[in-house]
Amino acid sequence: MKNAFFQLMLVAACALLACAALVLHHTASASGAGISLTTLGTAYTQNFDTLASSGTSSAVPAGWAFSESGTNANTTYTAGTGSSSTADTYSFGATGSTERAFGGLRSSSLVPTIGACFTNDTGRQITKLPPCANESRLLV
Q1: pLDDT more than 90, % of the chain
Q2: How many helices (H) and strands (E) does the chain have?
């Protein structure tokens, strides 16, 4: 899944991650499912392969959340291949494949937002976050 479309979705997701994490913090922390960061300098990775590969779902990895605003906003994402031009939150991947990517297609009337809630359990202050890298990695 290293074509330009998925890389573009990753860049968009990374750009929104910090803001989305703040917006979605209440949702993730209310469920007690935040992602614990325990060691400075260790990458956090998430492959999203547990996302639905067909149909729709609201199940996401622990600590992750999504929301939609605007027309047709709902609480589910749709499994897709990236060929649809319909604005929605998506679990992208080849038809029937368990290798997934989490993203969205925005329109003027629907805005999907994806984020994660992280808990600093390092025992030290985190003073900056590096930019997102490819393959859905954050180094803290």
Answers
A1: 55
A2: 1, 10
